[in-house]
Fold each of these.
Amino acid sequence: MSRAVAVQALDAAADASAGELAASLSLPLLAPGEPVPTGLLAVLQVGSGGLALQPAGPRASGPVCVDFSAPALRHRRRGGQNELLGRALGVGKRPAMRVLDATAGLARDAAVLADLGCEVLLAEREPLVAALLAAGLEQGALADDAWVRGLVARLQLHRGDARSLPPAALAELDAIYLDPMFPERRKSAAVRKEMALLQQLLEGDAAADAGEGLLDWALASPVARVVVKRPLRAPFLGGREPSHSLRGKAVRFDVHVLRSLTP
Ligand SMILES: C[S@@+](CC[C@H](N)C(=O)[O-])C[C@H]1O[C@@H](n2cnc3c(N)ncnc32)[C@H](O)[C@@H]1O
């Protein structure tokens, strides 16, 4: 995906960090204020507030970032789809559940789980998305708001494929959650905008692996449950029939129960 993204500092103070980030992600670097060349899909902006991915082009929407202080995230907290996600994973069946979000993305779902009291290990294999997550976690840990700091303290990032996690880390988990890329049909404009950008950036990856391999790996892991998020009318991931499904208005959670969560 990296071909279509460049890194740019928003001001001279962020110049050195932008250079380091561009080198670590093997992305081209633009000087502060330099016009964005045509053909770029987005610019990864580095500033005092962290990182933001700004789509390029004349009708581009606003920047996408991981902001655990965002009001939208707070308002997503309880009810509806979030409550369904918690139920699918069996939140409440044991205290402080440990969940691996094996497809972390922008951590919208992981933040909901952390808010529900879970300890969440976030795996993200795409380096640029992992960089956005790391920056969001760093900013969140410094937030004035104790709720945000508490949330972020329950989130831990693994930069890399979930399948590269060591057996010792897997042994500590209660459940694995998967939300592999799927052609976007979600209703919320904000979610659609973010996911559309991610989808564009990760097109090749999604085509190469739509999540079937990850599900097989998760089902062979020593966890009590594996939950897969799917659009309402999508077929079961990899054709694997779940133990049961919880259906919301726009999405479905397919629950594979492997053993009991209750001690
Ligand atoms: C649809 S997005 C997930 C969105 C996320 N649930 C959220 O709430 O923001 C899927 C993400 O999973 C990542 N991914 C896919 N397969 C992965 C794997 N095997 N290990 C780690 N990350 C993976 C992709 O890079 C992408 O960022």
Note: The longest helix spans residues 127-141.
Amino acid sequence: MFAARQSDTIRFLKSWAEDPLRVAAVAPSSASLAREITREVDPACGPVIELGPGTGVFTRALLARGVAERDLVLVEMDAPFRALLAARHPAAAVLDLDATRLAGAARALAGRPAGAVVSGLPLLAMGTIRQMRVLRGAFDLLAPGAAMYQFTYGPRCPVPGPILRRLGLAAHRIGGTLRNLPPAAVWRFRRLDESVTRGALSLA
Ligand SMILES: C[S@@+](CC[C@H](N)C(=O)[O-])C[C@H]1O[C@@H](n2cnc3c(N)ncnc32)[C@H](O)[C@@H]1O
């Protein structure tokens, strides 16, 4: 267990050294953050799309919540991370896909809408246009009422208010943890009309 975690940290550091902007962290997220970002996801959600799983900390938390491995669609641009994920989670769909082109994940869902999107992408570093592509693509694949979850190291919502309004989305900070380096917050995005219905409206 300790050895696996150590080798994941080394793998992470290598990927970061190769592409610091894309990986955007020198070590995997903590188990505490993984629990926070996955705590609203359950097996009844159906298929779950994970964006930027890296070494799979959030993937393991999703499995611990009872999501079936075959219901996981893992979208990852880094080849060594993909190899590691495919070896550890043989029933999951591991896609070599840029998360800004999420339409490419539709086939892995086999016609079913996704029940949740859990994102480890460095959204803050991606810039407005790419952020919009990720969010549009995610909500094109999400079932009505379903949500996307994103963590951030910043004090505010990682997606600016004007972009949320333009996409018809509402953002709500649902939690955070100090037990992560650096400390992180978790945000939930939903379609605006659905957030109003649920009484959870909060625009960043
Ligand atoms: C900050 S790391 C998070 C990894 C993991 N979720 C965690 O929390 O430990 C960002 C991950 O997103 C991946 N990534 C970055 N941009 C991406 C993109 N456009 N499409 C797919 N994956 C991307 C990186 O390769 C990396 O695995």
Note: The chain has nine helices and seven strands.
